[in-house]
Amino acid sequence: MIRTDEDNLVIVKSIESVDEINAKFYGRFQFPWPPEVLNCPVDPHFETVMLNQGVGSWDHSVVPRVPNIWVAGCGTNQAVITALKFPAATILASDISTASLETATRTAKQLGITNLEFRNESINNTTYREEFDYVICTGVIHHNADPNAPLEKLVKALRPRGVLELMVYNRYHRITTTAFQKAIRILGGNAGEIDFESEMYIAKAIIKRHKLRNIMAQSLEQYRDCADSELADGLLQPVEYSFTVESLESLCAGSGLEMMASCVNLYDKAANNFSWNMEFNDTELQELYDSLPDLRCWQISNLLMLERSPMLWFYFQRTDSGRPRKDEKQLCDDFLELQFTKCATQKKTYLRAGNGDYVSNGRLFPYPGKHPDEMCRRIVELVEAQPRVQMRDIVSQLTPKASLMLVNKLRLALTTNAFPFLMTTDNTAKESNT
User: Fold this and answer.
1) How many Å apart are CA 221 and CA 321, to the nearest integer?
2) I need a labelling partner for 184 at 20 to 30 A (CA). Which of 309, 345, 393, 398 fits?
3) Residue 379 DSSP symbol
């Protein structure tokens, strides 16, 4: 098992014992709670198209139009959100917590979702073999006794040319929270069986009455008035590993995976902090940085940006997929050479009522709507006004010499699931992928 001083492994005895503790933890503290609003695109293939573009498949062929999806460690709402996003897919959702599955099942029934099956199981005990085109596992393996064990199960479940979406904690995001978790565990004398209620009491007492004058005090302030489930998820996790880009790559390479591309998630999107590229004011330094492979650039960004680096949220493929990996430079070159059309679909919206049930408001809304960034809005307007014009020519109308960092940010902010504003036209996409 991986053991480092930066991680919270005080109670780790075995894979089975940690599975049991996690089941109890998420039975007591359900998190995240169901969102206030849920959306579903009218076009059943829309999100699959954007997913393909996000991994560099401009002809939309890597993930099939009707994919088989596994949400591994689905919690209370991720399976439902996935089923709404991919209504044409067949989706299996697994979780170790019966309470979380009961919440998710209740929500799915309210929404009339029929393409989703729930299973109460630990990833560590699954026996799936090359069954899924797309596997989603975010915020899960870092709470296991040994992250290698569930990761190997995910790889075995993935079809040879499938895509794995994986998120683990960024070490530089978790310095204070992991330290607090370890302190609570030691203070409570819980090197074996955990008393969640006792730990909650100790945590609240420290938050309200501490005399700390450091970065820990600043970190604890955000939990002063939050709900118990949110506090527990942040500060009382039974077991927690965290990673850097380097250690994540090493972990995944050992299981037969390679990074395809970064995945823009809703948290980094909200913070406008989703780019792994760095820009320097020194030309030679910039050229040196830009000349490095993606992994080296991301490592440098992780080390220099520290807590401001994005979440460790990436797409992976099997190393035996037979599909050459495209680096960010190739993805950007493809992006500039392609022609796009403006995405224009609609979405259904479900609102959470006072009793916790979801109800449809009976209306359809334009999707994706208006882009929040001015330059991106201008590009969408130019694409709409100038059909069959390459993106390179579109961008050149706004800036004569676009840096790699800018082009990659435009790619991410216009053609991915997080920013689904542009879609490749069939002919140019096929040309780019041949």
Assistant:
1) 46
2) 309
3) H
Please tell me whether residue 176 adopts helix, strand or coil conformation. Answer: helix
Q: Tens digits of per-residue pLDDT, 382-404? A: 999 998 999 999 999 999 889 99
Rounded CA-CA distance 93/89 in Å is: 12
**Could you give the 3-state DSSP secondary structure of residue 134?**
strand
The Cα–Cα gap between 166 and 154 comes to 10
**How is residue 306 annotated by DSSP?**
G
Closest CA to 314 of 48, 2, 55, 53: 55
Cα–Cα nearest to 343, from 395, 407, 418: 418
Which two tokens mark 45?
A: 């293939």
Residue 172 makes CB contacts below 8 A (sequence gap 6+) with 244, 302, 305, 306, 307, 309
Q: What is the DSSP letter of 35?
A: P
Contacting residues for 322 by C-beta, under 8 A, at least 6 apart: 160, 161
Average pLDDT, the chain: 94
Per residue in 160-205, pLDDT (tens digit) is 999 999 999 999 999 999 999 999 988 888 655 789 999 999 999 9
Count the neighbouring beta carbons within 10 Å of the beta carbon of residue 3.
9
Which one, of 157, 122, 125, lies nearest residue 143 by Cα? Answer: 122
A 10 A CB-CB count for 303 gives 13
Q: Is 132 left (phi over 0), alpha (psi -120 to 50) or beta?
A: beta
Nearest to 180 by CA among 139, 212, 227: 212
| Cβ proximity of 85 and 40 under 8 Å | yes
- Those residues whose C-beta lies under 8 Å from the C-beta of residue 143, and which sit 6 or more positions away, are 18, 22, 237, 238, 239, 240, 241
Q: Which residue has the tokens 């919440």?
A: 103
CA dihedral 190, 193, 197, 203 (to 10 degrees): 30
| Per-residue tokens: 275 | 């780019």
Quick one: pLDDT at residue 190?
63
Q: Helix (H, G, I), strand (E, B), or coil: what is residue 5?
A: coil
Residue 293: asked if its preceding bond is cis (omega within 30°), the reply is no
- Total residue length of the chain: 434
- 55's tokens: 């991994």
In degrees, rounded to 5, the angle at the alpha carbon of residue 265 between the alpha carbons of residues 286 and 305 is 35
- Tell me which residue has tokens 């014009």: 389
Closest to 38 in 3D by CA, of 81, 75, 71: 81
State the Cα–Cα distance between residues 237 and 58, nearest whole angstrom. 40
